[in-house]
Structure formats: C-alpha cells, structure tokens
Predict the structure of PurE domain-containing protein.
Amino acid sequence: MEGEKPKKFITADFERKKRRLFGETIFGESKTADHLKAAIEKMLEHDGEVLVTRLSEERFNGLGDIKNLLDYDPLSKTAMAKKEKTAIGKVAVVTAGTSDVPVAEECVRTLNYFGIGTETVYDVGVAGIHRLFHKLDLLHQADSIVVCAGMDGALPSVVAGLVSSPVIAVPTSVGYGAAFGGVAPLLSMLNSCAEGVAVVNIDNGYGAAYMAGQMVMKIYEKTK
C-alpha cells in the first residue's frame, strides 16, 4: 500500500484526448520524485504511453526501474514511452540560433509523440537571413510553422511575411541582459507586423507543439 500513497495526489485526465485531440502530458520540473513516478505509472497503466516534459537528467536518473520504460532525451529534457503511430502532416520547426535548439527539440519531440510529422530548420536567424531563404521551399510545404527565437525575437515576423502557413512564435530566454530572460523577444513577437502569428509563453516548446498539432489534426480530419 506504500506505493499507493503518492497516487492519491494525482487525478489523471484520461478523457482529455477526446476533448482536445491529445492526451495529458506530465510536467516533470516541480513534482516530488514519488509524485512523478506515480503519475508516470498511472499514465502507462491506463494508456500504455506517456510524455514527460521539463525533466532534468538528474531527475530522470532518480526514477528507478521505471526509467527503463522511457526514451529520454537530455537536450529537450523530455522522456516518453509511445505507441507506434503513422505520422500525419508536417510542422516545420525553426530556430534563430543554435542556443534555441533545446526549446525547439521539446517541440519536435512532443509532435513526434503526438504522431505529427516534423522538419527542422535550425540556426537561420536574422543576423544571417540568407540562410533562411535557402529553406523557403520546405517552409512553404508545411501545414504550420513553429519559430523559436531569443534576443530581439525578430525571426517569426520575417518568416510570417514570407509564407502562407500559420506561424507559432516561441520566445526563448536566450540573450544578454536587456533580453530580460525572454521578455524582450516575447514583446517583439506580440507586436509582430506580419499577420498570422500566434505567440506562446517563454521557452514553451511544448505549448507550441500542442497548438501546431491541433492545426494539423483539424486539417487532416477534414480530408478523411
């Protein structure tokens, strides 16, 4: 019965997939080790799959035997056990710089878990904008585009001005002092001159993936 105690703190939302297209995900950063393990066990028992975000390598290694059931990626700080899915659609995930890649990889891994196809276009920020132009054909083919950028946060506006696909902007906490931990790019993105830009919270690659995934699912639902 000792293992049952942490589970009393967890009320899993097993109906979320019916309402929202994708099931519940576990936010790993601020849970106790016991609560985290109990949540993972509960999801695996019911669904046979689970996604955990914001999971440091140290916390992953502290999960005990259950970690052997999970595929862990230290760059994105995500862990998952997933059923085989045929990927549908295509979301392009773009970064301004290499420093933005951990946030982008959280997005990519989440989309892969959801069964959504991805293409990555990394390190094409405005300091060398010609790099982006070489990837425009790929971006034009995407159902939606996620753009992660820190510092001045200008890249999502540039991308949105060049393509017809909806753009989801992710401000990252990358940058020097006046970037204010991602607040400066957040404000730039909210003030985008280009239309069709949605903005999620700072470093929220998961939230961008969820929105992009819903867009793709709705597109392909209508083609059935």
Observations:
- The radius of gyration is 18 Å.
- The chain has a mean pLDDT of 92.
